[in-house]
Fold each of these.
Amino acid sequence: DTAVSQTPKYLVTQMGNDKSIKCEQNLGHDTMYWYKQDSKKFLKIMFSYNNKELIINETVPNRFSPKSPDKAHLNLHINSLELGDSAVYFCASSQFSGETQYFGPGTRLLVL
Amino acid sequence: QQQVKQSPQSLIVQKGGISIINCAYENTAFDYFPWYQQFPGKGPALLIAIRPDVSEKKEGRFTISFNKSAKQFSLHIMDSQPGDSATYFCAANINAGNMLTFGGGTRLMVKP
């Protein structure tokens, strides 16, 4: 009965590879997000997706792309992985007009 | 450009003491200020939040103090317990439901 789930929990890969992280929420929310947490614990918003509108943080490289097959899922695709992409990636969701964002458990990505 | 600045980066408090974490923001359009709590290996979870139309909000041992003119807000944890040991993030956004801007985080350790 996990509210926001992510897979995989850990991801170790080589530079230059393409990878995806999946996110699913069963809260009936209509807005989903991706955040990146670096080694210093700093949390940065990457994307916000609400039904038909995608809001992108302008600092995010275009190697990162969110894809939403349906309202309950927002997957993160990363092309040509770089060492600096190593981080913990969190998915979150909320109602569009809601105040509380519910976070998933995170995916720990290590690029070698 | 960090729009929300948080201090201190780390804090050690004795059990039963008061923990105080401060945040300052720059964007006067921010109108929602949540605090998130993150335990190791977990995603952040909403702890308490405030809107700028009130100067204080209390929930149990947790209190937010808000100073609109100074563009500052703080989290006070009364009677701190070892179970409160976690990383705390202040955040802000414009219109609930939009992308959150997080502070840098404070790692709190409560010693028994």
Amino acid sequence: AQSVTQPDIHITVSEGASLELRCNYSYGATPYLFWYVQSPGQGLQLLLKYFSGDTLVQGIKGFEAEFKRSQSSFNLRKPSVHWSDAAEYFCAVVLLYSGAGSYQLTFGKGTKLSVIP
Amino acid sequence: DAGVTQSPTHLIKTRGQQVTLRCSPKSGHDTVSWYQQALGQGPQFIFQYYEEEERQRGNFPDRFSGHQFPNYSSELNVNALLLGDSALYLCASSPRSDLMVQYFGPGTRLTVT
């Protein structure tokens, strides 16, 4: 079964510092990978996605992620963190049920980001 | 353009009761998915609806059921509530033309006492 692992439960960084959030997946086929962000009391917002092609993908809010097949990883990065980036971040992989024309997202448990002013 | 909306925002129920949660998809979206997010966990897929039919289901018991209406809005019903059903329930919508990208609503916080 496919799975997504986010090894870090909680990360604290200073404002202006760089950020890397880790994500590893277990999936036999070529994965479709996503990063979502969830602010307190809010739903999930899509930051970026990887389907194929260039392994470095750019997203909203200055985030980027790099797909590394050899490491089964899809780490999220930002060169300079802002206080407003404090939130919970979820990595997700999609399993496509091509026969049914449907699919589902499988999420990691999330990494909570705290930002020190 | 309104995004995905969900109602109610919060709900408190007693064990054994039944609950109905509602979701209106983003304009132009015809596919609705439901997720359960327990405290400290990532969202877990419950099921997905398209053309008023359940197309895919996650590992949830039959106590969880749903419905999609002709206007694409959807309901999630949970019967015989358990304490463990306490969670944030998220609705997400997507157009058939771009199934991979899901837009999430703010969720309904269900507390079972």
